Amino acid sequence: MDLETVDAAELGRSLTGVGLNLLSRDVRGLADFLSEVLGLSVHRLSQDFAIIRHGDMMIQLHSDAAFARHPLPGLIPENPPRGGGVQIYLFGIDPDAAIARATTAGHVVLEPARDKPHGLREGTILSPEGYAFSPAIPVK
Predict the structure, then answer these.
(1) Which of the listed CATH numbers 3.50.50.60, 3.40.640.10, 3.10.180.10, 3.40.109.10 matches domain 8-68+79-138?
(2) Which residues contact 15 (CB under 8 A, 6 or more apart)?
(3) Whole-angstrom distance, CA of residue 73 vs CA of residue 64
(4) DSSP letters of 59-99?
(5) Structure confidence by residue, pLDDT tens digits, 90-114
């Protein structure tokens, strides 16, 4: 399937497993963060929508306006951070490199990269809207 040209109905019918959809005030800004800091690939980028790929995992970004008829935007807090309480692990991404890119770009590093007792080296970076992304690799 070509993620640049697939229509919405075909994309929807193809989805399996667990899906992640993040609502955003700034889809392009969040997509840039995911691409530049975490190295994820961005497809179908527009003001209202983007498909983000990490291996076989797909994340969808929707603007608040694109979700205006859904009840979910009514639950978004008026004061940031939006993504409070959600931690999104991205396995297979070097946390030290991602933390360095985040620091250089001026993003908030919530937790520096370190080895954890559960066998992962991980760190946590906040996206501009407060979503917590944790790149992680197995401890050597």
Answers:
(1) 3.10.180.10
(2) 58
(3) 7
(4) EEEEETGGGTTSSGGGGS-SSSPTTTT-EEEEETS-HHHHH
(5) 999 999 999 999 999 999 999 999 9
Q: Are 98 and 125 in contact (CB under 8 A)?
A: yes
Task: For 1-52, write each residue's pLDDT tens digit.
Answer: 888 888 888 888 888 777 899 999 999 999 999 999 999 999 999 999 999 9
Supply the pLDDT for residue 8. Answer: 84
State pTM to two decimals. 0.85
3-state secondary structure of 45: coil
Tokens 């193809």, located at residue: 14
